[in-house]
Amino acid sequence: MHRKVGFMKIGIIGAGNIGGNLTRRLTALGHQVSVANSRGPETLTGLAEETGAHPVTASEAARGAELVVVTVPLSAVPALPKDFLDGAAPGAVVIDTGNYYPQQRDGRIDAIEEGLPESRWTEQQIGHPVIKAFNGTYAQDILDRGTPAGTPGRQALPVAGDDPAAKQTVRNLIDELGFDTVDAGGLDDSWHQQPGTPVYGSQGDVDTIVKALADASPERTAQWRA
Predict the structure, then answer these.
(1) What are phi and psi of 136, to 5 degrees?
(2) Is it the case that residue 1 has pLDDT exceeding 70?
(3) What 3-state DSSP class applies to 160?
(4) Of 121, 122, 96, 118, the residue nearest 225 (C-alpha)
(5) Calpha distance 168→133 (Å, rounded)
(6) How far is CA 115 from CA 68, 101, 133, in A?
(7) DSSP one-letter string for 105-148
(8) In the Cβ-directed half-sphere of 170, how many Cα atoms lie within 13 Å?
(9) Mean pLDDT score across all residues of the chain
(10) Coil, strand or helix: which one is 25?
(11) Which residues pair with 181 in a beta bridge?
């Protein structure tokens, strides 16, 4: 059986591949999900009808939410409403799924080029601690590869963050989605799961993910530098 974490009110900001599939899975598990994108709630009618999620604006997505998923391009993070987390529930957990793609999408972000972990940069931009998860996961895996706890070879996802309780909340939710997790350390260690590292895109089990994290190098490959 998958672990049940209990009913949660969840806000998802970003309705692309990861955000859309998290909306599908989390509503199916019984969570109350509000979802927003940059184009407005009227463009989310299809996803809302499919899932029962509430289409809202980015400013409204976190209202009353116990957990907020920020899953937008890194270049779009500074454009998020400055107060979008003000109405979240006390102690709300924020997941950052973002990745820095300087050549393909985001342009140069100097602080990241100089070594600041991507999620630490996002945390600074939004003014709230984040847990890094789902960033190296294929979106389709969220729909297709979840299995019950104890399944041999169960896919595992790395999770990094500084708050042990917040990190455990995220790990429990991922388990409910059907995946094992590996504690990838604090947010300053989250470079181990950035693009270009061995764990990025891995569909391996716990042992595979532990080894991939250990094998990561802080030197970014040319593909992932501006």
Answers:
(1) -105, 15
(2) no
(3) strand
(4) 118
(5) 12
(6) 26, 14, 19
(7) II---HHHHTT--HHHHHHHHHTS--EE-STTS-HHHHHH----
(8) 28
(9) 95
(10) helix
(11) 157
Give the C-alpha distances (Å, rounded to integers) separating 110 from 73, 82, 93, 104, 120. 16, 21, 27, 16, 13
Strand order across the 93-96 sheet: 54-55, 32-36, 9-13, 67-70, 93-96, 131-132
User: At 65, which amino acid appears?
Assistant: A
Backbone conformation region of residue 52, classed left if phi is above 0, alpha if psi is from -120 to 50, else beta: left
DSSP string, 49-89: HHH-PEE--HHHHTTT-SEEEE-S-GGGGGGS-TTTTTTSP
Could you tell me the pLDDT band of residue 4, with boundaries at 50, 70 and 90? low
Helix, strand or coil, per DSSP, at residue 221: coil
Give the pair of three-digit tokens for residue 202: 């891995």
Q: Tens of pLDDT along 126-182?
A: 999 999 999 999 999 999 999 999 999 999 999 999 999 999 999 999 999 999 999
Q: What are phi and psi of 158, to 5 degrees?
A: -75, 145
Q: Are 71 and 14 in contact (CB under 8 A)?
A: yes
Residue 107 φ then ψ, to 5°: 70, 180
Measured CA distances, 20 to 119, 140, 171, 209 (Å): 21, 10, 20, 25
pLDDT of residue 226: 82
